[in-house]
Amino acid sequence: MDTQTNVSETQRQYLTRRVCVVNELGLHARPAARLAQEAQKFSSRILLKAGAQEVDAKSILDILTLAARNGCGLEIMASGDDAAQAVEHLARLFRTKFQEG
């Protein structure tokens, strides 16, 4: 399993999963909106990390600031009661190209 626990500077425990943007056009508006919409279904705090930049995965505008292109490696980070479910659900979106075809 490719999940591991990390501790942020606030000492919050995060469950993390590395994912790759496989959509041909990258993480553009449509998949970013879908990601934010799906992330909002969970009570956990969910972040998306690219390099040193961490953004709120429940905010489409924050996600778009990552400018994640095809092939870009990202990390989904979640902390809370439903963190494991959130990480798995969001990772599935990346694997299925956000069902864009």
Properties at a glance:
101 residues; alpha+beta; Histidine-containing Protein, Chain: A; five-stranded antiparallel sheet; 3 helices; 5 strands; disordered N terminus; transferase; cytoplasm
Strand segment tally: 5
CATH class: Alpha Beta
Number of domains: 1
Helix/strand order, N-terminal first: EEHEEHEH
Percent of residues in helices: 25-40%
Distance between the termini: 26 Å
Beta content: 25-35%
CATH topology: Histidine-containing Protein, Chain: A
Query: How are the strands of the biggest sheet laid out side by side?
Result: 1-2-5-3-4
* CATH architecture heading: 2-Layer Sandwich
Radius of gyration over alpha carbons? 12 Å
**What is the CATH superfamily classification?**
HPr-like
Write up this protein.
It comes from Desulfocurvibacter africanus PCS. GO terms for molecular function: transferase activity. This protein has 101 residues and is an alpha+beta fold. It has one domain: Histidine-containing Protein, Chain: A (2-Layer Sandwich), CATH 3.30.1340. Helices cover 29% and strands 30% of the residues. The chain contains three helices and five strands. A five-stranded antiparallel beta sheet has the order 1-2-5-3-4. Strand 1 and strand 2 form a beta hairpin. The chain is globular and about 35 Å long. The N terminus is likely disordered.
